[in-house]
Design goal:
- It contains 3 helices and 6 strands; from the N terminus they run βααβββββα.
- By secondary structure, the chain is an alpha+beta fold.
- The chain has one domain: Thiol Ester Dehydrase, Chain A, CATH 3.10.129.10.
- The longest helix has 18 residues.
- It starts with 5 loop residues before the first strand and ends with a helix.
- Belongs to the 4-hydroxybenzoyl-CoA thioesterase family.
- InterPro entries: 4-hydroxybenzoyl-CoA_TE, HotDog_dom_sf, Tol-Pal_acyl-CoA_thioesterase, YbgC/YbaW.
């Protein structure tokens, strides 16, 4: 079965680069995060709505391979694919690609659903609200 791939376009701005004009490594994490946020939004999941209920997703684990350098003004595509969906976590495979198809970055991200609690309370993993789980299941 083919997994559905979400794609989000990003252009490299000067602020994304280091002194050598290539994308600073930490900014790939921002690109990946933005694509996941837009993917959720495309599914009708607005994170601010769930934050009002003190439910959020936090990145628990990152594996990232920086294959080639993206440069200032490059047009990129960031992909999102759900690899595994659990009751309280999601594992994503993501890539950052040049418009010509070259791969700059590959990553696997594990995000956990958490109850953010009130001030002073600890953040703890919880099962995803069924509304979110069902949407993610259909999108996989």
């Amino acid at each position: 079965m083919n997994k559905l791939t979400f794609e989000w376009p990003i252009r490299v701005y000067y602020e994304d680069t280091d002194a050598g004009g290539i994308v600073y490594y930490a900014n790939y994490l921002k690109f990946l995060e933005r694509a996941r946020t837009e993917w959720l939004r495309s599914l009708g999941i607005e994170q601010n709505t769930w934050l009002e209920h003190r439910i959020g997703f936090v990145v628990r684990q990152v594996q990232m391979d920086l294959i080639a350098p993206a440069r200032f003004n490059d047009e990129l595509t960031v992909t999102v694919v759900v690899e595994r969906l659990g009751k309280a976590s999601v594992v994503f495979s993501q890539q950052v690609l040049h418009s010509d198809g070259r791969i700059f970055c590959e990553a696997q991200i594990k995000a956990a659903c958490v109850n953010l609690g009130q001030s002073g309370e600890s953040v703890r993993a919880v099962p995803m609200p069924m509304e979110i789980f069902e949407v993610l299941k259909r999108a996989n």
